[in-house]
Amino acid sequence: MIVTTAQKPTPEQTAYAQAIAAELEGRFVPRKQDSLQLLGRKYEDPVLLVADDRGLRYYEDSKEPLYFHPSMAYVRVKRMRKGERDPLIALTGCLPGDSVIDCTAGLGSDSIVFSYGVGASGKVTALESERVLYTVVREGLRSYRTGHEDVNDALRRIGMRCIDHLSYLKQQADKSADIVYFDPMFRHPLHDSSALAPLRGLANGAALSEESVKQALRVARKCVVLKEHGDSGEFERLGFEKRHRNKIAYGVIIPS
Ligand SMILES: C[S@@+](CC[C@H](N)C(=O)[O-])C[C@H]1O[C@@H](n2cnc3c(N)ncnc32)[C@H](O)[C@@H]1O
């Protein structure tokens, strides 16, 4: 993977791109006046990460780039700011001060909603097993600016970890979090879900394991929640009670 900057970077931007290249074991190359296509051809590498004022953008061949954007999460949080209850917050019974483990961070949208929901006295830990995704989203949460300071604060408070959720859950004490949340890649992807399209090639597509659910039930005080395609059969396989019967459904298990 090539890591580069925008054209005419400041010394700080160059140092930042070099640090990201070192972290991801990529090859830092100076951008000069080259287009991204030319850089790819010159260094015979179709995988490119650009670090600039807009954050990190990951390009692979001619696919849509992957970058952090709060997208639907921002819409959901703006509704919450007006006093509306987000369906995921309502379903999980999430309250200010709660601690949430989001076991499948992805682009961080659900983590942002949880982070706004639990507020400054709560805690959201977002787990992502895939290193590039983790780095792009971690940097986005650190630097992206929405038009609202309280939303920016919610982004900054999310603690991201690059780790497989089963390993993480095994390290946690019994009943040490309020909510444990899983949103794995659907067994049967919804092809109209364009928000997740750039993530598909990079994401961990493994099915949720029974062992992860067992560990989640040990760690959670309030509930363990799974988001999946309504017809996937995953709720039945893993013992979740299906709560919403739309195309996208949530399943809940209340720990004993
Ligand atoms: C459907 S996406 C999650 C989308 C996310 N809820 C959002 O709002 O943006 C699933 C993510 O979970 C990650 N993932 C899958 N299995 C994982 C595991 N065992 N541990 C940590 N992350 C995992 C995938 O790499 C992918 O990025």
From TrEMBL:
InterPro entries for this protein: 16SrRNA_methylTrfase_J, SAM-dependent_MTases_sf
Gene3D superfamilies linked to this entry: Vaccinia Virus protein VP39
Keyword tags: Methyltransferase, Transferase
Transmembrane spans: none
This protein's record includes keyword Metal-binding: no
Pfam family, one: SAM_MT
Molecular functions (GO terms): rRNA (guanine-N2-)-methyltransferase activity
Keyword Methyltransferase among UniProt keywords: yes
Classification via PANTHER family: RIBOSOMAL RNA SMALL SUBUNIT METHYLTRANSFERASE J
Name listed for the protein in its UniProt record: Class I SAM-dependent methyltransferase
Top-level taxonomy: Bacteria, Bacillati, Bacillota, Bacilli, Bacillales
